[in-house]
Amino acid sequence: METVRCTMAQAVVRYLCNQFTIVEGERVPLFPGVFAIFGHGNVTCFSEALEAVQDVLPTWRGQNEQSMALAALGFAKSVRRRQIMVASTSIGPGALNMVTAAGLGHANRLPILMFAGDTFVNRRPDPVMQQVEHFGDPSVNVNDSFKAVTRYWDRIVHPEQIISSLPQAVAVLLDPADCGPAFIALPQDVQEMAWDYPEAFFAPAVHAIPRPRPDRARLREAAAMLMAAKRPLIISGGGVRYSGAEAELAAFAERHGIPLCETIAGKGAVVHNHPAYVGPIGILGSTSANALAGAADVVVAIGTRLMDFTTGSWTVFAQTAQIISINTARWDATKHRALAVVGDALETVDELDELVDGWVAPKEWTEFGRTEMAKWNEALDGFRKPTNAAVPTYAQVVGVINDRADERDLLIAAAGGLPGEVVKNWRVKSANSFDCEFGFSCMGYEISAGWGAAMADPTRTPIVMIGDGTYMMMNSDIYSSVLAGHKFILIVCDNGGYAVINRLQNAKGGASFNNLLKDCRVKEPFPVDFIAHAASMGALTRRVENLAELGEAFDWAKTTDRTTVLTIVSDAFVWTPGDAWWDVGVPEVSARAGVVAASKEQIEGRKKQRVGV
């Protein structure tokens, strides 16, 4: 057997360089790059290995471990999980900074391969710098915290172990059912060890994402249920996009006259003007989709885990509604008494189409969907229409940017008040041009994801929309994007704090407290000069005072050669309606009458919830 002698760290990197996949008929690297911040535990061995292959496997330096991993996830979403970025950190705080990003990837089924430095296996120099000791279990350190937020976890305590570990990690990253973060801890004394690795371990390998086909008997059952429906509704989730089933599902819905709504993760599978489209569903949804959900007798949920923001905490559907859940993950497909059809979205839609050939939903139901969507479109026009108000609403800001954005420009949002506003008001012009990370609602994702998405596809411009609160939480990848030459346009809507949480606080009877800056324990709630701050990181900037200036500034931003930041003061109290009910905890006992009243309303709302598991 031919062997190659190299260190464990060198072997890991060499293996990564020889993994490929096919995208649009072209062989491309499965791992196109590495985000890394080098420090204690990964700077001497792992960085030495990466430096030697930097022309094949480029390394990008982030400014924060969390943000660079978020950039990796933004990259993965932009390419619809077809390629996977790597993230490397030091031990201790560097690794822990990455846990939040791992949580996002785990919640949203997004792939990222993470390597963190680890303490010495031989324990001879213990305790080392940045080591957290557990008195009752010396084998535990901070890297064990990743076990809660990863699909695959390993610690390499012998150089030979990567021969079995790395292929397992890759299998998880590519599995549509188990997809999520893979984490491997690399103890620093094991990284340095040389080993005679089989040459075959480094042979080039071309990977394909599997497409599991559904059980035939279960699919026939689903077809019978669908053809018996009088008021069917399709919910398009993120799995539709990751499967590449957008065109097939759009054609299926139109051919059979089934109204089609979308989840937050699913938005962008079909364009806004598609004849079957009836808007987003749920708490951030439209009056049109929610009206159809309440009347539907059969709901076909495709590629969605049916989280509370989609289901209105399980109040948007009738108690008698039957659910057909098509999903690659058994866990997701089996929820709430659904008929579970476990399979790839594209394969399943194609096979279901054959089984229901010739069947069309009742014409009056199809027309009802179009009528409700027409009403919603008319309402959107009103929400987005500019007025003479001194401060514009989120909906008006979104409308200006949406109207001027190019067809393929990618809109990115994540947390705060903007997700609800863009999910409702952004009219998608082309498939896969929308990314709202709301499964984990991770403040700080947006700017980093803009960097990752710009890196993934230089042929389109990411448009990142955030509030002032999110900007303050994580903004350093403005600098990263300028350094790397990956441009995005950032729109900062300054409404004076965490306005949407203040909205929720007030809606449940609470006083405005510690959310808007004016309601915090501060000496003076003076505004932050976001323009000066972004400019100090090398971005081009412009402050705009009204909607007309915003449109002009956005047109200018499209012509610039680097990341460009625009800021505008926006309204903290006006929101686009259309929301479904949401179950949150409200105190049963309070000195505030508004809280007591809200508690009673919450208890009444729970009576409408669908009983399930």
Q: Under the CATH scheme, which class of the largest domain? A: Alpha Beta
Looking at the structure, the CATH topology of the largest domain is Rossmann fold
Rg estimate, integer Å = 25 Å
What distance separates the N and C termini?
Answer: 54 Å
* Low-pLDDT segments, ≥5 res: none
CATH 2nd-level architecture of the largest domain: 3-Layer(aba) Sandwich
List the domain count as a whole number.
3
Residue share in β-strands: 15-25%
Provide an overview of this structure.
- The chain is α/β, with parallel strands linked by helices and 613 residues long.
- It has a 6-stranded parallel beta sheet, sandwiched between helices.
- The model has no long low-confidence stretch (mean pLDDT 96).
- It has 3 domains: 3-207, Rossmann fold, CATH 3.40.50; 216-375, Rossmann fold (3-Layer(aba) Sandwich), CATH 3.40.50.1220; 385-569, 3-Layer(aba) Sandwich (Rossmann fold), CATH 3.40.50.
- 37% of the residues lie in helices and 17% in strands.
Summarize the structure.
By secondary structure, the protein is α/β, with parallel strands linked by helices.
What attributes does this structure have?
Rossmann fold, six-stranded parallel beta sheet, alpha/beta
Show the helix and strand layout.
Elements lengths: L2 E5 H10 L1 E5 L2 E4 L4 E3 L9 H7 L6 E3 L3 H14 L7 E4 L3 H5 L1 H10 L3 E7 L33 E4 L6 H13 L6 E7 H4 L2 E5 L6 E3 L8 H12 L4 E5 L1 H6 L2 H11 L3 E3 L14 E4 L6 H9 L2 E5 L5 H4 L10 E6 L2 H4 L5 E4 L2 H11 L7 H22 L9 H11 L5 E4 L4 H8 L8 E3 L8 H12 L5 E6 H6 L3 H8 L4 E6 L4 H9 L22 H7 L3 E4 L3 H11 L6 E6 L23 H14 L7
Parallel strand pairs: 2-11, 4-5, 4-6, 6-7, 7-9, 8-9, 12-13, 12-15, 13-14, 15-16, 16-17, 18-19, 18-20, 20-21, 21-23, 22-23
Antiparallel strand pairs: 1-10, 2-3
Helix pairs in contact: 1-2, 3-5, 3-18, 8-14, 10-14, 11-15, 16-17, 16-23, 18-20
